[in-house]
Amino acid sequence: MNWNRPDIWIIAGYLVLMFGLSLWHRRFSSSNLENFFLGGRKIPGWLNGISYTAALVSPDAATGYGGLGIVTGAFISWWYLSRFGLALFIGGVLFGVFWRKLNLFTSLEFYGLRFPQRAASAMRIWIAVRTSLIAMPAWTGITLLAAYKILGPAFGLTKLETIYLIVPISFLFVFFSGYKGVVISNLIQMCIFFIGTIVLAVLTQMYFGGPAAMTAALQHAFGATHPEMLQMAPPATHDVFPFTAAVAWLFGQSIGYGGDAAPMGGAMEGQRILSTRTPSEALTMYVVTAVSMFVLLLLVTLPSISAALLWPELRAAGADRELVYGYLMKTMLPSWAMGLLVAAMMAATMSTVGDNLNFGSQVLVSDIYRRWFVRHASERHYMWMGKVAMALILSLAILVVFQVRIITNVAIVMLQLSCAELPANWAQWWWWRFNGPARIAASFGGAGIFCLVVLAPRLLGFMGFSSAAHFALPWWWQALLVMGLTTLLWVTVALLTPPDPEKLLRDFYARARPLGYWKPFRLGSKEGSQAGIVKPIFRGLLIAIIGFAAVCLLIQGLTAGWFGWYTSCISDLVLAVVLFIVFKRMSRSFLAYLESRTAQAANGNNPALPLFAGEEESVRS
């Protein structure tokens, strides 16, 4: 390792700051479970948004997305825009208010309100196990692996040395500080991450002589063989990310999003919603997440595209392209800047690891240990068991570090599994006839279909069956096929089995006042048309699409600026601002309607509510 003195002081100062913050919040977090896991439900929406970005974006963004950037090109932004963009706005506009109004401790408690006891218990066990013992170790493991792929090229660290450097302070931080300390530290860590990535991006531009010179060099090197590198949209055919894959991401991750606040493919979304101060701030959390996350991902992917001029061998099949960001750091940064960016990567790693451990332990203790094993212990006992659960999750994550090579492969598999049941997550909110057996079919049947479509061809190929290659579809077609077959399964089960008990459904509707097809349980004096029932949903989807379009134009405009296409840059940014203003005004009106609707449910006041512009809600006596 070649450690320079400025690097050492910067990194040491960061570690001391983080440990001091953890001790500062120790007293607050140790007072009760709600403070330790939800920050006392007093976290501002914007701060939760930055924290959610910290949970979603870690060094695996620099390695995974950076590696994708070097083999794709200017259209790399569509990998994460299609994956997260529309989904986040749908979750914020159509579901954030409802989740916060339920005032749950963990989002998994929702199943006890919505489904009969046997189905609810099965769902809580399944989701708690897959979240705390599968998803959180997997995402934590690839975060630590990503840190190694950056610190390895930059300083020559091994995997074990990287773990020794990052894991102890990450564990001690979340051990002492709880959720509030994690959220506040996330703000500091993201500021460091933003500064570090901006420094590297600026130095990369300077290295190539500015946007025009860099773009000309890319055109000269790849214009004849790979012209798609300077295209703003995914090409129709591409080995890594064709247009079809973008469509698969968009539909596979957006349809059904928001109906489950603890998606396997996402991070600790429910924890962010339930800890906000007010229901309306849940939408603020989503919007801040979308903007901050996409700008940060842009900062790590754009320099990686330019790196193809320096290391074209990383574009070859079989090359470990995820080392590119570490190479950039070593090549571009002076000593003081190297220490800053290493601290930034450590900050991002610690924020994600801390979030994963805090959320995973909350679910493991509340939905498994406390519910099924020790029901009547003291809060102090449960807090200590939560800290034991953190150690267990971290141990499993370290196993992942030594078993995985390519980070994006894990992300794709995890998201394929989660998208199987995503449409069912909308159905459990919007269709009263969606019952317990259908919920079980969506979750367990979806997992079985995933194994059949995704894992079986791989297993057959591993066993030496040459015909297995005929069944191994590209991952984007696999995702859509798994989703389609699972949806067909749970719709069939719902229609062929009896509905859930009437009292259960009536109590849930009275408490949550969900949108959609709940006509037998609507409160009021008139029975309305189906158009009146679904109009709020379509209006919410329209508002979400406008927000998604605004953030897409923002990212496309900044991308155009990176390559020196200033006319496109300015026009995209101006249009993005206009759409953000439209989104803000429409969403404010829509959320006011949703909050008044759920407030009347909470107060036991049942008269019909106005929808929009004088329209009355359709209800049934």
UniProtKB/TrEMBL annotation:
TM region positions: 6-24, 78-99, 127-150, 162-179, 191-208, 283-311, 332-353, 388-415, 436-455, 475-496, 537-557, 563-583
Membrane topology of the entry: Multi-pass membrane protein
Subcellular compartments: Membrane
Record keywords: Membrane, Transmembrane, Transmembrane helix
Keyword rRNA-binding: no
Protein name: Na+:solute symporter
Stored Pfam families: SSF
Main localization of the protein described in the UniProt heading: membrane
Species: Compostibacter hankyongensis
Family classification: Belongs to the sodium:solute symporter (SSF) (TC 2.A.21) family.
